[in-house]
Amino acid sequence: MENQIRTGALPLIMGNYASNFGINLFMYGASAYTDGKNITIPRLNFNNEDEMDMAFGYVAHECGHVRYSDFSVIGKSFDGTEALRSLFNALEDTRIEYLQIKNWPGLRKTFNHLITKLDESICKYLRTCKNKTSLITVFFDCSNRVNCLNQSAENSLKMAKNKLKKILPETLISALQKKARMAVKCHDSEEVLELSREIMNSIMKTIDFINDQKAKKDNAKGQTDLFDNSLSESIKQEFDGMPEANEKQTKALEKEFDKILSKMKDSIELDNNLDRKHPDLANVIEACSAQSVGAVDIGSLVTRNSAPADNLSLYKKVLSENSLRNNIHHLVKGYEDWNIGSASCGKTLDVRRYQCSLGISDRVFKKKLPKKALNTSIHLLVDISGSMSRPCHENSTTTRSQVANHVALSLAMSLENIKNVDNRVIYFPGNYCEYEEVYHSGQPLVERATYFDLKPRGCTPLAQTLLYSMHNMPCTDKYHRNIIIVITDGEPDNYQFARDMLAKAKSLDIEVYALRIAPNQGRLKDLFEEQVDMLNASELPDAMTTLLADKIFNCR
């Protein structure tokens, strides 16, 4: 019961929490990110307590950035490499979480849960990490989380420090570690950037010093004492917290440097960019989402749909190029006429019986026979993911999405005034959510026509769109049909979730048909039981006509 309450309440709590910070919250796509005005998280399963806490933790973290971070400073942190920017981001993360916890003490537990997941990912990553920029970032991020926020990142901190000691002396690492803790006391992002710059300058000077000593060693020809008397003072000036230099401490530091030099084969160079596998809060929640089959939505908080086209060019084109629309209309009309043809007993003559009876029998009229009435729900799901921007075929100036839009509007116009047919057209992805219903029966099509003229964008959330469509289907009986037609050209974001939704549709007696443009081979060919494959989008109008004639309005 408690989990059910939390499951239902969390989307509202998250939405209200985000509203308090003056931002919009979206669950959409496959990535987690913020631009300072909007927070986007990928689909998660709110029936899973672990995923639910992760979602709230990430939203709380990003809200902290929106409230306390100066996004203009991020641009200043780029110095030609990712090193300074990544260090700044790590220190800024701990500063904003420190402030969030100070104002919302209950967030300590939430953040700690999220960092536990991050710690697991970092430990796995560090086992094979060779990127020195990523290593430095991980170390200072974990250090501040452990020492300033009391978060559970001890395992990754220990691993990062052991690897960092191979390129920097431990005494100097400890001094910089102490300096980095000042991040939570900084008043703003500008101060954090200045602190990050000081730490990075110290690291670079130390690396330059080690590389210089290596060069001297390579040219020394047996000389063992490479360090001059200026070592202690020159290095000490770069690091706050170093104890007063004395001969014993200087010898200890020289010994650390010498240990590093003895194992060096090449000069130390920082990588220009972070490793793509470098874990952070965003990709931890993205990895969790990739395995999720969640259905609870926070999209109800989104009020902005796609902007309609500026004109009625698509509507006029469908009216002028009306062959597809006429074909569909004739199929529907033929089905209606066939269905009504034997509805009355004693009024329709059965010619064969009349001929056989020579006119002396009164059993010459057609009898009532049970037939499925034209009582049907047809949902058209149109893929407008990024790949639909490709040309319809080689040397074509028309895109796949333009043909799909034409087919969608033609079908809607053909079914507009047909009695007992519920027609919906749903595009995926939507503007700020995973799907967007552009039309349903009862709406004036001339007013909705501009919403069919949408441009490709984003990913392929087929599973979530199927889930929405099924939710809006009426209960079936032997006189009612529920039909979903999918137009797509790509693999869904979550293949297993899509497969589960198609299995659920089958169990509910919902018919699903797919029109696949330029289909890939492999597991996709097994996704849909009923499908029509086309080499290019120019075949789509004929494929739709054939599908409707063979599967839906078949009078045989």
Describe the protein:
The chain has 556 residues and is of the alpha/beta class. It is 50% helix and 9% strand. It has 20 helices and nine strands. The protein has helices spanning 2-20, 49-68, 71-76, 83-103, 107-126, 132-149, 154-164, 170-180, 189-218, 231-236, 247-263, 281-290, 313-320, 323-340, 351-357, 400-414, 445-448, 462-471, 495-507, 540-552, and strands spanning 24-27, 33-34, 38-41, 376-383, 421-428, 436-440, 481-488, 510-517, 530-534. The strands form two sheets. The protein has a six-stranded mixed β-sheet with strand order 6-5-4-7-8-9, with helices on both faces. It has a three-stranded mixed β-sheet with strand order 1-3-2. Helix 2 (49-68) packs antiparallel against helix 12, helix 5 (107-126) packs parallel to helix 7 and helix 14 packs parallel to helix 20. It is elongated and about 105 Å long. The protein starts with a helix and ends with a helix. The model is unreliable at 1-8, 299-303, 342-347 and 349-360 (pLDDT under 50).
